[in-house]
Write a structure and sequence with these properties.
30% of the residues lie in helices and 13% in strands. The chain is α/β, with parallel strands linked by helices. The termini are far apart.
Length: 314
């Protein structure tokens, strides 16, 4: 057995050692556990990004197979592949809970194989948390009836129909499902690529993406009031500055953001690209919402990143 000894002064130390006063050094400390909420991580050999899914389980499976992540039995076969889904699993479709369940199962399988699945929050996740149900389908209400039991009907829940209360309770801040959303980031940097749902502005860089992730997390857990900046055209989950045919000024703004974060590109969802995955600003922004959900009738397409090579897969 190896013994770790502190060095003792030459003369006094010999006597001290004979008396057992020179105590063994402790073994080296184990490396710290990785931060599950880290905003930045090293680049793997291959990343695949998937855009808006909006409650369509079939489209989700198709996208994951296109990415090389799962087989025909929905088992992980991606090895060390890292998948980033840029938000908007909720609303416009009836199979939202099933998508989250599938991704949760695959996340465990991916981690065991050296890969990862990262799901980000989009505007529709946050809309449900701030009680905006404009895009919930009839099936979407039913889908959450087995997620949580409504024991007490408070002053808000009483304003809803009985079949709507389970979803509302589960997704409002502090609710069971909102707390699951709190485990997701809203921004993620993998290697030289920034992923988010809408877009990052210079003021967001100044505030700090780690801080913004933490603020949204705390709000979803019911620990703080809703941050004002999550709504509106300048919100990182709502703005379309880089995804709606950006002009030169928008591209210049993007250059400031990328330089401030020391990354090469941003990948966003949120705005449907009729021609499929599209890049703007000289390849510095990639827009991956292709409307693949049944609600829109598009076809699955994903974005692959291998080092500096970025391309859409159909």
């Amino acid at each position: 057995m190896r013994t770790y000894l502190r060095s003792c002064p030459l003369l006094a130390g010999l006597a001290a050692f004979a008396l057992g006063a020179c105590a063994p050094e402790p073994p080296p400390e184990a490396p710290p556990e990785p931060d599950p909420y880290a905003t930045r991580m090293e680049a793997p050999s291959r990343i695949v990004a998937i855009g808006d899914l909006h409650g369509d389980l079939s489209a989700t499976r198709a996208a994951l197979r296109l990415a090389g992540a799962i087989d025909s039995l929905d088992a992980w076969v991606g090895g060390d592949l890292v998948v980033v889904q840029t938000g908007d699993i909720l609303d416009r479709g009836d199979e939202e809970e099933a998508i989250f369940s599938l991704l949760a199962e695959l996340r465990e399988q991916a981690e065991a194989a050296g890969g990862a699945i990262h799901v980000l929050n989009g505007n529709h996740e946050l809309m449900n948390a701030y009680l905006d149900y404009r895009y919930v389908t009839d099936g979407g209400w039913v889908d959450f009836e087995d997620v949580t039991e409504v024991v007490a009907v408070d002053s808000f829940l009483v304003t809803l129909e009985p079949h709507q209360r389970a979803r509302a309770q589960a997704l409002r801040p502090g609710g069971e499902f909102a707390r699951l959303l709190a485990e997701q980031n809203t921004f993620l940097i993998v290697g030289q690529t920034l992923f988010t749902h809408g877009g990052v502005l210079p003021e967001h860089v100044e505030w700090g993406l780690q801080w913004m992730n933490a603020e949204i997390r705390s709000w979803l857990r019911g620990e703080i009031q809703q941050p004002e900046w999550i709504r509106g055209d300048l919100s990182p989950v709502w703005n379309r500055l880089y995804s709606d045919a950006p002009n030169l000024a928008a591209c210049d703004t993007l250059s400031i953001v990328l330089a401030g974060l020391d990354v090469q590109r941003i990948v966003v969802g949120h705005t449907i690209q009729d021609a499929g995955i599209t890049s703007y600003c000289g390849g510095r922004v990639w827009c991956i919402d292709v409307g693949m959900a049944e609600h829109y009738g598009g076809k699955p397409e994903v974005l692959e990143i291998r080092g500096d090579v970025v391309r859409g897969l159909r």
